[in-house]
Amino acid sequence: MSVAVVDRPVAASLPPVLRERGQREVFCGLTGIIWLHRKIQDAFFLVVGSRTCAHLLQSAAGVMVFAEPRFATAIIEERDLAGLADANEELDRVVDRLLARRPEIKLLFLVGSCPSEVIKLDLSRAASRLEAKHAPRTRILNYSGSGIETTFTQGEDACLAALVPSMPAAPAGAPASLMIVGALPDVVEDQFRRTFADLGIPAVFTLPPRRAADLAPVGPNTRFLLAQPFLGDTAAALEDRGATHLPALFPFGVEGTTAWLRAAAAAFKIDPAHFDRVVAPGRERAARAISRHRAVLTGKTIFFFPDSQLEVPLARFLAQELGMVPVEVGTPYLHRAHLVHELAALPTGTQLSEGQDVDRQLDRARAYRPDLAVCGLGLANPLEKLGITTKWSIELVFSPVHGFDQAGDLAELFARPLNRRDRLAV
Q1: Is the pLDDT of residue 9 over 70?
Q2: Strand partners, 143
Q3: What DSSP state is assigned to residue 12?
Q4: Domains defined along the chain, listed by start
Q5: Selection from 400, 394, 417 nearest residue 324 by Cα
Q6: Strand 17-21's sheet: what is its strand order?
Q7: If you average pLDDT over residues 133-146, what whole number do you get?
Q8: How far apart are CA 45 and CA 35, in angstroms?
Q9: Which end of the chain has fewer beta carbons closer than 10 Å to its terminal beta carbon, N or C?
Q10: Short-list 66, 1, 59, CA closest to 31
């Protein structure tokens, strides 16, 4: 059964939203482990799940059998599902063996999956029990990576939200600090840190940190920027600790990055003239890099299937800076408060859809015949068979795409499939 409802926006200037509920085609939240385990360098992610969960992570990460990654799967066997074995006792044995073998682990995440939730395994209680045993050497937290009702990027949101209660309280009267929230490649994070330092904002923290012990202090003097639009639970958890969100465009392209940086500069009362001087070189580099792809992309139509929750900011970037025409922008969940600036910047007439009904969306894509469709892996081949050029949405999550110095690379990710199509045309 599928449901489609037109939801009228609160602000009259925003387009109506088609809300859909039906068949879904997404990866689960376990996928976030692929980039998170590289980011927090002394953390380990132990998925409590099935062999299917293990195969997903192993194949998605491309880990060789003799490598020692910072993730693994505690396999739930038939005996556990049938209630013939105590899953908690077996989990305790797995964790004890893991921490004895890998003493460098300072933060262990127990990650729930569809199978662990089906058998009602209480990983929150298990994490508390195991942390009492292994503290202070190892902190043990839990979150859900289940894909039953979520999309794959929400795994990062759940992970970061689980970290927030462990963050120390900022001292009363401490000067204001800035926090970048969202996992970014180290090179991109370093670029943003240098820019904020040049602007005169010295106290800059990141969530997640590169080391478990480096969790930032948080409190009423904390201002935070979201680097990703899919961090709704994390933002709410930070606000519950007294932190203040700085709403802005997301840092994709020239205009998005400038607006994102400006939101922080305004919060810290940086002189506007100084701000313009600091960001001018980055803006110019990004504009030159983007211009190389404008001829390929200008005037081309694009259709976003709901997948990563990056769809709205990316559609804004492509329309605003490259002249593409988004005929439909679908997203699994539309967080209006975090996307208010992005939604206002979309071209008039853009169809927004929230949620998933794959059959209906495929029908609309066939009718639109867009030049490019951004979709999940499972839909790419069927769309290509229909003659619609595709871009895998997951590649936009794995690739460094934020900030001035990655703006050209981001544009190229959309230009590349169109260039390939033209070269193969006969």
Answers
A1: no
A2: 111
A3: T
A4: 29-150 (3.40.50.1980), 177-287 (3.40.50.1980)
A5: 417
A6: 3-7, 17-21, 351-356, 325-331, 301-304, 372-375, 390-392
A7: 94
A8: 11
A9: C
A10: 59
C-beta pairs of 77-85 under 8 Å, 24+ apart in sequence: 80/119, 81/115, 81/118, 81/119
Structure tokens at 168: 């120390």
**DSSP-based three-state secondary structure for 197:** helix
Per-residue pLDDT band for 10 (boundaries 50, 70, 90) equals very low
Radius of gyration of the chain (CA): 22
Residues 6+ apart with CB under 8 A from 125: none
Tokens 């937290």 sit on residue? 141
At residue 219, does pLDDT exceed 70?
Answer: yes
308: left (phi over 0), alpha (psi -120 to 50) or beta: alpha
CA distance 181 to 205: 9
Element (H, E) at 328: strand 325-331
Residues 6+ apart with CB under 8 A from 346: 15, 312, 315, 316, 319, 326, 329, 352
In the 3-class helix/strand/coil scheme, how is 130-152 assigned residue by residue? Answer: HHHHHCCCCEEEEEECCCCCCCC
74 exposure class (CB count in 10 Å sphere: 0-12, 13-18, 19+) = buried
Question: Which pLDDT score is estimated for 33?
Answer: 92
Does the structure show a pLDDT above 90 at 142?
A: yes
Strand 301-304 relative to strand 139-144, pairing: unpaired
pLDDT reported for residue 66: 57
Mean pLDDT in the chain?
90
125, amino acid identity: R
Per-residue pLDDT reduced to its tens digit, 374-401: 998 889 999 999 999 999 998 999 899 9
Element (H, E) at 60: helix 51-61
What is the pLDDT confidence band of residue 205, given thresholds at 50, 70 and 90?
Answer: very high
Query: Would the pLDDT of 292 be above 70?
Result: yes
Cα–Cα distance for residue pair 305/330, rounded to 1 Å? 5
Tens of pLDDT, residue by residue over 35-67, are 999 899 999 999 998 888 888 888 777 765 556
Nearest to 332 by CA among 360, 358, 306: 306
